[in-house]
Design brief:
Structural class: mainly alpha
Distance between the termini: 6 Å
CATH class: Mainly Alpha
Largest sheet: 2 strands, antiparallel
CATH superfamily: Rhomboid-like
Number of domains: 1
CATH architecture: Up-down Bundle
Length: 234
């Protein structure tokens, strides 16, 4: 059984997109942490998106859509307001993203994270059209990657190092259980985190379902994806 980042021939397949997303997100978090409380508020306002402003902009002619009101749907994906939320997102993005990037390719996972994450944010803006609080976070993109993983590998076991007392024990557990743990963490963050429950819920659900639909579509209509899935299992 090859490791997630090895090709069937033994060559290392570097998950460049995941590395770049992780570095950019961490750098953005460091810069955010260095700001004053007033500066942090401006930072979130600049990089995030306000649902009310998004819907107001979309009601205007398409020629006006190239603005910061809509670009925030994408830039918000690499901005976080807390280290715990950032590290949690990156951990799950890494665990599920490595096999996804190997099967769909570098450009494929980038499109999944950015476009489906942006789509999830757009759905949040539509659902909460009167909300004027800026929204940030990678939850929509991470949810989309997890949805793609489930669609590509519905019955695959995942190898993880689990803490058992003072030691780490390597174990293989069904991927669906890991996804369940992710949903529990997101539920806790929905209840106790800085964003409203409605925002967190819609971002996660839309991103996850969009990723799942795309993965099922690829399995049905892309022979190249089917071949890579079979190679990954060997």
């Amino acid at each position: 059984m090859t490791r997630d980042w090895d090709s069937p021939g033994g060559a290392v397949v570097v998950p460049w997109v995941l590395l770049i997303l992780a570095v950019v997100s961490v750098v953005m978090m460091i810069l955010f942490s260095l700001l004053s409380s007033e500066g942090q508020a401006v930072w979130i306002q600049f990089w995030g998106f306000e649902p009310a402003r998004v819907m107001e902009r979309l009601a205007m002619p398409p020629s006006t859509w190239l603005s910061e009101d809509l670009s925030g749907l994408l830039t918000a994906l690499v901005v976080h307001a807390g280290w715990l939320h950032l590290l949690g997102n990156l951990a799950y993005l890494w665990v599920f993203g490595i096999p996804v990037e190997r099967v769909v390719g570098h450009w494929g996972i980038l499109l999944v994270f950015v476009l489906l994450g942006g789509f999830a944010n757009l759905c949040v803006a539509w659902q909460l059209a009167d909300m004027t609080t800026p929204v940030i976070g990678a939850s929509g993109g991470v949810s989309a990657v997890i949805g793609v993983y489930l669609g590509l590998f519905p019955a695959r076991n995942m190898g993880l190092w689990l803490p058992l007392g003072l030691y780490l024990q390597f174990a293989r557990i069904p991927g669906i259980l890991v996804i369940g743990s992710w949903f529990i963490l997101q539920l806790l963050y929905t209840v106790f985190g800085p964003v409203t429950g409605a925002v967190a819920w819609w971002t996660h659900v839309v991103g996850f379902l969009a990723g799942l639909v795309i993965a099922l579509f690829l399995r049905l209509f892309s022979s190249g994806i089917q071949r890579r899935i079979m190679e990954f299992r060997n």
